[in-house]
User: Fold this.
Amino acid sequence: MTIYWERCSICGLHRPTRTCVMDEELMVCPHCCLACPRRNVCPNPVWKFEIPVRKTMKIKKSEAQKVLMDLLSKLESG
Ligand SMILES: [Zn+2]
Assistant:
């Protein structure tokens, strides 16, 4: 995952964007990522790296991995 200063695929503004974990076709800025309805299930949201909150460190790695693996299996089968 790399941070680029590119045009956000959602709002169209030039902002520090990252590739969306849920859809690798999308470049998303933290603002739009926060507004995404899928943020609750997203294992690696864009905004997580913009706001250094201690609580984010407490997220269970195994849980995030489980969600990610589930998504990957869906992508592979679809
Ligand atoms: Zn945006």
In short: The longest strand covers residues 14-19. Helices lie at 30-35, 61-77.
